Each structure stands twice: as structure tokens, then as C-alpha cells.
Amino acid sequence: MRDALSLVCSRPRVEDTNQRIREAIIFGFVGGFVKPNDMKHPEVLFAKYVQSRYGAGVHVGIFGNHEGTKAIEDLTLFLDANKDSFLSADEKERTKVILFGHSWGASQVLSFARELQTRGIPVALTIQVDSVKKFGQNDHMVPANVARAVNFYQRKGFTPGQPLIVPADATRTNILGNFQMKYESHQVNCDNYRWLSRVFNKAHHQIENDPQIWDKIASLIDSEVLSREVESQSVSSTACGRYCKHSKVAKN
Length: 252
Fold this sequence. Notes:
Elements (H helix, E strand, L loop, with lengths): L23 E6 L12 H13 L3 E6 L4 H12 L9 H5 L2 E7 L1 H15 L4 E7 L11 E2 L3 E8 L12 E2 L6 E7 L14 H6 L1 H7 L2 H15 L2 H5 L20
Parallel strand pairs: 1-2, 1-3, 3-4, 4-6, 5-7, 6-8
């Protein structure tokens, strides 16, 4: 499973102060009935990688797809800089909010963004990976408080992903793309799932474990979090330690 982050962990690390990293909140939502501390899932490992990459200037959280209330409380507490239990307009807008998720977690991403919209909190970027609609949710239409959104999906197995996301307001939201992934020509390691899931719903788990997906996600998050000053300077490459191992992966 750690192969999933092989490309991510070979990326140059940012070795700099927090002044050169934009303040951000990055929340991930896991799929199905996965627990947010389950280290067998790349979403959980990716959250740890992101925290280690950007340091204290970025607040990272990982949640179950049913933990929207907990995530709201966490986000609100972080945004409330003066701790007066009230979010001013400046507090709502000073921090970039980035959301990512897989399966039901991807559906929760848009649901969570809508909740933030009701509170007047903008979202810089939403990332959906093989989104599977939860009952009562809409994983198709991106709310107008989201600046940029991207959707990665596949169409095989019992739970094919949402193939199309659209903006509620095209003047406010830029859909970066709906990208279909296909795995007939190469394999992705899904050993973090039991054989039954690998046999009958393999593609849904292949996209979750695809190193190229996580590398693209990391690039998108870098584009939001890193300032031009950081992006323009050379940074050294270091190992990712216990979060991943390097491996050669096939191209799509």
C-alpha cells in the first residue's frame, strides 16, 4: 500500500520557514467505514505526509465521511484566531481551505464545502477521487464558494465514481477537469484490501492506491500552499521515512 505514495515521497521537500508557506487548512475524508486512523489507507498516510511537508503553518485533519460536525468544529476553532467564539470576515478569508476525499469521503467533500458556504467560508480547492454519492448528498454540483475543483474517477466495478462535476456558478468556480482513470493496461497494488474487494471492486481501490493520482493531488495542493518565493527556489530531496517506500510504477 505504501507504493501509493511512492511518487509523492520522492518529491522535493520544502525546507523553509512558515513565512514562505501560505496558511492553510487541509482536510481529508476517508471512504466507506474506514477509520481516520487506519494507516492501511493512503488518505491517512497522505495527511501525515502533508503535515510533515508544510509544517506548523498548515493545519491538517483526516476524518471519517460521517464526521462532518467534528470537522466543522475543528476548522472553526483553527480559524478563530482571537478565540472570541465568533468568526470575523477576515478570519474566514485569511486561510486557504483545501478538501480531498475518496469514495463516500469524496461525496463528503462537497457536502462539507456546502456547509462552509452557509457560514460564509470560502474553499480554495476540492479534490474528489472516485466519488460515490452518499444518501442525501450531491457529489455532482460544486458549490459557489469553491474556487477550484477537480474530479478523478473510474467506471468499473460495483462502485464506479462520479464521472462529472459541474459548478453551481461558473463565474466563481473553475472546474480543473473530470479525469477518467483506466487500469486495464497496468496493475496497481491494492494489498491493503481483502481479496474479495480486490476481485469484485478492484478498480475502485486501484484509483485510491494509484501513485500518479496522489502525485497529481500533491501538485495541486502545492500550487495553493506554496508562495512563488518557495516555488522559484531549489529545494533538496529527502526520504519520506516510515510513510512510504520508493518503487517503479507503470504509466497510464
